[in-house]
Every structure is written in structure tokens, then in C-alpha cells.
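To: structure desk
From: M.T.
Subject: fold request, one chain
Message: Could you run this one when you get a chance? Sequence is below, nothing fancy, just the single chain.
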Amino acid sequence: MGLRTATRRGFKTSMNSLTLTTCLGENTEPICKSVAGYFTDRLQIRVQYEGELSWEERSRRIDTGEIELGWICGLLYVQKVDDTAVPISPLVAPIMAGEAYRQQPIYTSKIIVRRGSDFHTFDDLRGTRFAINEPDSYSGCVLVQAYLAGLGETGNYFGEVVESGSHSQSIKCVANGQVAAAAIDCTVLNYIITQYPQLQRELRVVKVLGPDPVPLWVISNTVPQKTTKKLKQLLINMAAEEDGRKILTSGNVARFTAVQDKDYDPIRQMAHQARTVRWVF
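Reply: Done. C-alpha cells follow.
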């Protein structure tokens, strides 16, 4: 494949290189770096990983086409394509390793508390101080709002809701007693506990929300269709190659599978339900 330039909807992408990033937690960074190298080794295109920018700037560059490949939250995906018509398409989603994922591209949000606390159920958290990572996080915020809406509750369920800035910070806030509880992406929680095993003894899960469609990989519509197909096939076939399996295992991923826009309709529905529960930070 020679060098090509594709122009769509006003964007222009030189096909001698592509940029890949993640807008998710720190657990996704190592695998994305490795996948960038994996792509570069197998294509006549240099694929570089962008990990220095804030996640907000990475997200903005996905919008503009400056970053062509991104691993993003399902909620962020539907906001981009539904609200602002960003020219991106679903590429693949991971099926995480472990029986809890049922060999499907799903994940959950876990409500955690300190193990020694008096909180044993979600009902026990009424009136307490609750941490979210940021307001546009699906697993860390919106899913909790949707759950409360389904119970007929309002934004006053918790005594106070604070924004920590990240899932890892929310975990720290619970562990050190700054808040009573937090909602954590299960893949991030598993990763953090692997890094800091003592947390397994310090934290307890009182409620699991979901499962829901897992964060997905998206690709800019400025990338030629032929290249998009090659990238998708490489990701799907990684589990069949020794080098690919090593990369997947490092990120606790079993394999990648193709996904479509309609697969994220459940997140659209939950986001709509969540609108009735508002928090002031």
C-alpha cells in the first residue's frame, strides 16, 4: 500500500502515519502503546501512541481528526456521534479476560466502600459523601444517576457528591476515608488492585451496576476504508498470534470483537434516564 491522502468532511489525513490514543484509565495505556507498535510492524504505516496530552485534549483531537484511532468510553462515543456529529465509526471492542465478562464485550461499575465501614448495601449509602471521577463518566457517574432514577430517587440521595478527577483518585478517597463510597469501572478496579494488592483487604464491593457495553475503539472517517478494514482485522486476529496474545494478556484482554453503533443503544437509554438525577459540585 502506497502513501495516500484521504479527504472527507473537510479533514485531510496523510496515510504515512496514524495516531492512536486512549481516553480511559491508566490500565489502558500500556496495551495501547504495544498495539501501536504491533500495527507499525504489520502495516506500511507508522502508528504512534499519544499519551502525553490530557484526556480532554486527546478527545478534542479525535473530534478534529488529528488523532485517528481512539479507545473511548461508550458514553463519550454516543455524545460525539449523536450530539456533535463527530465523523468517527466503531471499530472493535475488547472482551476482557475472566468469567465475569461471559466472553462478551461488557463491563460493570462497582460501588466500593472501606471494608471496615458500616456500609454493607447501597441503601446504607443514603446521606453519605459519594465520589465520582467526573460528570461525563458512564461507569463513574451517569450509571449511578440512572440507577437512582430507576429507583425513583433524586439528586438528593447522597448527602454530598464530590468529583475526584479519576477512578484511581476515587479509590484513594474511599481507602483513606475521605468519602464513604465511589463508583469504579471494574476493569480499572481490577488493575489497581493488581498494582496494590493490599487494597483487596481494605475495600469491599456493596453493589454492582451493569453489565453494559464496554468502552470501544473508534476510528476517524478520514481514514481510507481499506486501511480501516486492515486495522480492524489485525485487532480481531491478535488473539490468534503469539505476539498479539502477549499484548492482550498484558491488558487483561481475551480478544477484540467487531461492534456497531446500535450496540451502544443501551448506553443511550441509560444516559437519557440519568437526566432526571442532577448533582451540584
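Reply (cont.): The longest helix spans residues 29-42. Let me know if you need anything else for the meeting.
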